[in-house]
Amino acid sequence: MHSPALDLLRRVFGHADFRGEQAAVVSQLVAGGDCLVLMPTGAGKSLCYQVPSMLREGTGIVISPLIALMQDQVEALRQLGVRAACLNSALSGEEASRVESQLLAGELDLLYVAPERLLTDRFLSLLDRSRIALFAIDEAHCVSQWGHDFRPEYRQLDVLHARWPAVPRIALTATADHPTRREIAERLGLQDAPWFVTSFDRPNIRYRVVLKDDARRQLLDFLGDHRGQAGIVYCLSRRKVEETADYLASHGIEALPYHAGLDAGVRAANQRRFIRGEGVVMVATIAFGMGIDKPDVRFVAHLDLPKSVEGYYQETGRAGRDGDPAEAWLCYGLGDVVTLGQMIAQSGAPEERQWVERRKLDALLGYCESTGCRRQLLLAAFGEQHAGNCGNCDNCLDPPRTWDGTVAAQKALSCVYRTGQRFGVTHLVDVLRGADTDRIRQLGHDQLSTYGIGTELDARQWKGVFRQLVALGLLEVDIEGHGSLRLTPDSRAVLRGERPVSLREEVVRRRERVRGRGRGAASGPAAATPAVALSAADQPVFEALRQLRTQLARELSLPPYMIFQDATLRAIAEQRPASLDELARVGGVGAAKLERYGEQVLAVLREAEAA
């Protein structure tokens, strides 16, 4: 059964059908109702307001926090033949005036605008004189003061309902736990609106966590499996971003830095190269990524611990938006916990906020040290249950071995107590292993009952014990004490023998084998490793189509994915359409793209058949 919405989806966007909750959301908005939409990145949130904006009379006003995201979405829509524009600070006065005239004349299907501009008297007055189809509030989690991307301007967006009560509103986010969802609904006046919640699971992403042991070298080894692919590497500090980008570049990887301290022109140029290239690695602080709509990011790597599970989910969600296999790789150590704890303590935030941030950090540490399915833990943070093991995280693919660490835990906790709860891991390990150092003798710690009682484990294993005891909530890091460890109330049960402790076995990295692979990858050819395998007959056709896409993208100064995504090119290579009518039935080929590129695509296919 066809509907105007489905016909438009097929004709303009080239999709055969709606996915998940999309159809229900579209129906709600077309009928004039409000809604709150929670869908993971890559699930098609944008279609939920783009289709109703084109079906309803007037212009859909999309409130988006980032200029880069606006420009990308507007360009992608124009490629589909949709009348879209944006208003932001990047436009000249003349360009902005032209967009405003188009809005007043009813010549736009969608207009993207930043919340700061929307809230100005001038723009509100402009809307008063325009016909509005709907309001779409993207990245709605920015309204929450407890969220990871809080923006005060979002708090004032309740003016939309007060001023235009008859215009439907849709608030959308890809990451919001239950408290954040409630706050979004309350702050935006959407308490009575239905919630449309899709599973937060991103089954195409593989999650891996490794312990720091020469982190840059570990990163290089990891990149060996992603030769020629686009990806993002997140670091905590600006200095580390630049050092890491230089290190990767020195090993033959096209890596660029991105952080708020770089010159704005350099930042913009690096972002453009990342978006329009096909194998660029962006090394960045979390200032990068929220506005990135690049679907073919094949990996997201963290060289430092993120600040929360929520932030981690959002950052890793920038990989694999096209649905093809992608990887989220996290390299961390206990030092990250100390650094982030110090950042929280020095933030100047109210104690209540600091308490929330510390609990979020604790939850992420628990995720890192878990021996169970990582996907289950990640989804549980959003109130979602995942039945059984996922089969696509390191713990499911290669289950870690555990051991009864009760006695080791008692020794470690006793050592913390006997030394006065004033020392960090390195000194505590030296005491347990009976090291003969000047510091131990000066402090008299060679006279303690815990001195030398831990010779059965090496230093690396003891560091693992302490790290896991922190993750289990049996020890806490004293931030003001420069990373010293102290007991928590829960440690008493372990010391009394009332609570057993199971610990994961520390794995020794096979350094030479992995390093060799990393070096070979860095110096190898630039062609991307395919994310999805094609048959031997289809692969050359796919590569020829990619070459055509690259050529078109350069001619039009567009990112290649805006011409066609890899999934569409694979489908064309496999189906081998022989006419425009057949090509029109391939997913991702809408009417505008068929008209613009159809004949050139068919020419490539005819040439492949003749070869």
Structure description:
There is one protein chain. This protein is an alpha/beta fold and 611 residues long. The chain folds into 4 domains: 4-197, P-loop containing nucleotide triphosphate hydrolases (Rossmann fold, 3-Layer(aba) Sandwich); 205-397, Rossmann fold (3-Layer(aba) Sandwich); 402-504, Winged helix-like DNA-binding domain superfamily/Winged helix DNA-binding domain (Arc Repressor Mutant, subunit A); 532-610, DNA polymerase, domain 1. The protein has 28 helices and 17 strands. The strands form 4 sheets. The protein has a 7-stranded parallel sheet with strand order 3-4-2-5-6-1-7, sandwiched between helices. A 6-stranded parallel sheet has the order 8-13-12-9-11-10, sandwiched between helices. β15 (475-478) and β16 (484-487) form a beta hairpin. The longest helix has 20 residues, at 591-610. The protein starts with a helix and ends with a helix.
Determine the structural class based on helices, strands and strand pairing: alpha/beta
Q: Strand portion, in percent?
A: 5-15%
Whole-number count of domains: 4
Helix residue percentage:
40-55%
CATH-derived topology of the largest domain: Rossmann fold
Per DSSP E runs of 2 or more residues, the count of β-strands stands at 17
Q: Largest beta sheet, briefly?
A: 7 strands, parallel
Computed Rg: 27 Å
What would you say the CATH architecture of the largest domain is?
3-Layer(aba) Sandwich
Number of helices: 28
* CATH homologous superfamily caption of the largest domain: P-loop containing nucleotide triphosphate hydrolases
* Gap from first CA to last CA: 42 Å
Q: What is the 3D form? A: globular
